[in-house]
TrEMBL record:
Gene3D superfamilies: Winged helix-like DNA-binding domain superfamily/Winged helix DNA-binding domain. It comes from the Bacteria. InterPro entries: WH-like_DNA-bd_sf, WH_DNA-bd_sf. This is Transcriptional regulator SlyA. The lineage of its organism: Bacteria, Bacillati, Actinomycetota, Actinomycetes, Streptosporangiales.
Length: 139
């Protein structure tokens, strides 16, 4: 093992980010748009709920959640109800479906050559590492 895990985590994230930006640009979207669309596809959420779910992906000084939801609303892809929950419109559902195909292509590319067990084991190990540090920081 030539490089530590931190290197590979950051390197992979940068590669995923670059590929998502490249592929989703064909739809006029970014990875952040995709994350909002995919989160709202699962269930309507308030701005706070979206922020809690997607906060780890947002970097300070980068595009804001409000920027992304505002742009999607201007496209007619999401609406906000009286309780402040964002919901995808039929156009937003169609946009999500188109973006989902592109994201699945990215996932297929970076999972090439891995078995389901290898992928699951990697995710399990990363989850454990995160939990170890979270427990340490909580004490």
């Amino acid at each position: 093992m030539e490089r530590p895990i931190g290197y590979w985590l950051k390197h992979l994230d940068r590669l995923i980010e670059a590929e998502a930006e490249r592929v989703l640009a064909e739809e006029g979207l970014t990875r952040r748009h995709w994350q909002v669309l995919n989160t709202l596809h699962q269930a309507p959420r308030t701005a706070n709920g979206l922020g809690e779910t997607l906060g780890p992906f947002w970097q300070p000084g980068a595009i804001t959640l409000e920027d992304v939801t505002g742009e999607l609303a201007r496209r007619g892809w999401l609406t906000e109800d009286a309780e402040g929950r964002h919901t995808l419109t039929p156009e937003g559902l169609a946009g999500h479906a188109a973006a989902r195909e592109k994201v699945h292509g990215i996932r297929s590319a970076f999972l090439t050559g891995l078995t389901e067990e290898e992928y699951t084991g990697t995710v399990r190990a990363l989850r454990r590492m995160a939990a170890n540090l979270e427990a340490r920081q909580a004490s």
